[in-house]
């Protein structure tokens, strides 16, 4: 645990200029200044995953590590370090994406995936790439249900049913008819 706390301390504070310059030359860092909170969190997750996979005691799950992460985020915000949040894809953006899709098979596939992604509350790329037309089931009242076998937190391969959702248009018919299935 103490090594992880040292890691966090070194990454949340400003590094000496010569160390930072060397890290930039080596390609470890892109620019001067403290790393972003999300970068440090991602690196901490990698350390945690390594320990778990090796069957070792996970130092990242210690109460003090969680507390340091929580307080560091608050301090960063109070010191004016902005937490960058991606703007949601609003209807106008989604309409522009759909407008780029032509009537070819690839265009129909892309349009279907865009509609599926945003109509069902937003899916991750990994979830979308595993999706098959047969995983979409039409229910009553124009509602659909998706069967998913993997998600960010569940790689078991067991089928999970997501919430029902409404589509603007006929997603399965649009894509299914393009490939000869419905």
Outline the secondary-structure elements.
Blueprint: H1 2-12, H2 17-26, H3 37-53, H4 63-78, H5 91-99, H6 105-119, H7 125-129, E1 136-138, E2 143-148, E3 160-161, E4 165-166, H8 171-179
Antiparallel strand pairs: 1-2, 2-3, 2-4
Helix pairs in contact: 1-4, 6-8
Q: How would you characterize the overall build of this protein?
A:
This protein folds into two domains: 2-78, no CATH class; 91-179, Intergrase catalytic core (hpI Integrase, Chain A). Helices cover 51% and strands 7% of the residues. It is built from eight helices and four strands; from the N terminus they run αααααααββββα. A hairpin with a 4-residue loop joins strand 1 (136-138) and strand 2. It starts with a helix and ends with a helix. The model is unreliable at 175-182 (pLDDT under 50).
Short description, anyone?
The chain is α+β, with helices and mostly antiparallel strands and 182 residues long. The protein contains 8 helices and 4 strands. The protein has 2 domains: 2-78, no CATH class; 91-179, Orthogonal Bundle (hpI Integrase, Chain A), CATH 1.10.443.10.
- How many structural domains? 2
CATH superfamily of the largest domain: Intergrase catalytic core
Report strand %.
5-15%
Number of strands: 4
CATH architecture of the largest domain: Orthogonal Bundle
- CATH class identity of the largest domain: Mainly Alpha
- The sequence of SSEs as H and E is HHHHHHHEEEEH
Major β-sheet annotation:
4 strands, antiparallel
**Total helical elements:** 8
Question: If you compute it from the alpha carbons, what radius of gyration comes out, rounded to the nearest whole angstrom?
Answer: 22 Å
What class do helices, strands and sheet pairing give? alpha+beta
């Amino acid at each position: 645990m103490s090594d992880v706390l040292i890691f966090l301390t070194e990454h949340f504070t400003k590094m000496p200029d010569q160390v930072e310059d060397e890290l930039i030359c080596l390609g470890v860092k892109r620019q001067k200044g403290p790393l972003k909170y999300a970068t440090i969190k991602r690196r901490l997750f990698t350390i945690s995953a390594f320990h778990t996979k090796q069957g070792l005691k996970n130092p990242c799950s210690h109460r003090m590590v969680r507390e340091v992460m929580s307080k560091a985020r608050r301090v960063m915000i109070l010191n004016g370090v902005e937490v960058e949040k991606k703007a949601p894809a609003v209807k106008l953006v989604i309409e522009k994406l759909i407008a780029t899709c032509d009537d070819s098979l690839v265009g129909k596939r892309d349009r279907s995936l865009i509609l599926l992604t945003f109509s069902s509350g937003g899916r991750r790329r990994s979830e979308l790439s595993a999706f098959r037309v047969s995983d979409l089931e039409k229910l009553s009242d124009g509602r659909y249900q998706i069967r998913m076998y993997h998600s960010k937190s569940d790689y078991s391969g067991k089928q999970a049913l997501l919430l029902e959702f409404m589509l603007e248009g006929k997603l399965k018919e649009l894509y299914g008819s393009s490939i000869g299935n419905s």
